[in-house]
């Protein structure tokens, strides 16, 4: 029962976390990253206080902290992607790339899949091809006229999605190298995310002020949802194991695509772009689930 509850929390939170702040007017995406990091740090502090998990030596602290710095840059890339491509397309590109990059990192750094069987190798190649096909469909889903107006830039969005795909597939590596549990690494990771996001904001020479009072609630709501999904994932891993837990979390891609198309109209429902995006997300999700099942 706890595993099912954790799965629902993870999929719903990570499937919707970008939506609250998607249409908040921002001078720079670094501002959104800063507020997301702040909200995540507050949630992480509350969870650490509740669990009493404060004791970490310096070595165990700095590795997750470094992972947080990587996450901060990843978050900026992701927000740049969603601002220029829309949530459904951006998430549909970076999420499957996260899986591929994490798989490569697991093989190169941690020696996973050292001696795969012929069947495993065949299934793995087919799964990667599904992911690539899904991403190609999503990229081919050109935005409508309303999305091409204003300051949106498809090349900038694609670069942001690729950056998020690579870096969010790697930020866990320092946490793994620290040799601590995800629960123990959650707080120093959150501190690193906050520190990195603060530096990124300071480099822009823009203050964190937003246009309207409700905008503060919306951008921090994005951070709270991501943090809730993160801790839901930790509970899911505790209940079902890392492989199954990671597999189930990929269903958030489907939720995210539905939110982007049917709530935010990016791209608008019943358009060619929407159909291609949904089809691409479906293929990429199947590929990700297969890889997650193999990793377990």
Automatic annotation (TrEMBL):
<keyword id="KW-0762">Sugar transport</keyword>
<keyword id="KW-0813">Transport</keyword>
<protein>
    <submittedName>
        <fullName>Sugar transport family protein</fullName>
    </submittedName>
</protein>
<feature type="transmembrane region" description="Helical">
    <location>
        <begin position="216"/>
        <end position="237"/>
    </location>
</feature>
<feature type="transmembrane region" description="Helical">
    <location>
        <begin position="91"/>
        <end position="110"/>
    </location>
</feature>
<feature type="transmembrane region" description="Helical">
    <location>
        <begin position="183"/>
        <end position="204"/>
    </location>
</feature>
<dbReference type="GO" id="GO:0015144">
    <property type="term" value="F:carbohydrate transmembrane transporter activity"/>
</dbReference>
<feature type="transmembrane region" description="Helical">
    <location>
        <begin position="153"/>
        <end position="171"/>
    </location>
</feature>
<keyword id="KW-0812">Transmembrane</keyword>
<feature type="transmembrane region" description="Helical">
    <location>
        <begin position="275"/>
        <end position="294"/>
    </location>
</feature>
<dbReference type="Pfam" id="PF06800">
    <property type="entry name" value="Sugar_transport"/>
</dbReference>
<comment type="similarity">
    <text>Belongs to the GRP transporter (TC 2.A.7.5) family.</text>
</comment>
<feature type="transmembrane region" description="Helical">
    <location>
        <begin position="122"/>
        <end position="141"/>
    </location>
</feature>
<feature type="transmembrane region" description="Helical">
    <location>
        <begin position="243"/>
        <end position="263"/>
    </location>
</feature>
<keyword id="KW-0472">Membrane</keyword>
<feature type="transmembrane region" description="Helical">
    <location>
        <begin position="60"/>
        <end position="79"/>
    </location>
</feature>
<dbReference type="GO" id="GO:0016020">
    <property type="term" value="C:membrane"/>
</dbReference>
<dbReference type="InterPro" id="IPR010651">
    <property type="entry name" value="Sugar_transport"/>
</dbReference>
<keyword id="KW-1133">Transmembrane helix</keyword>
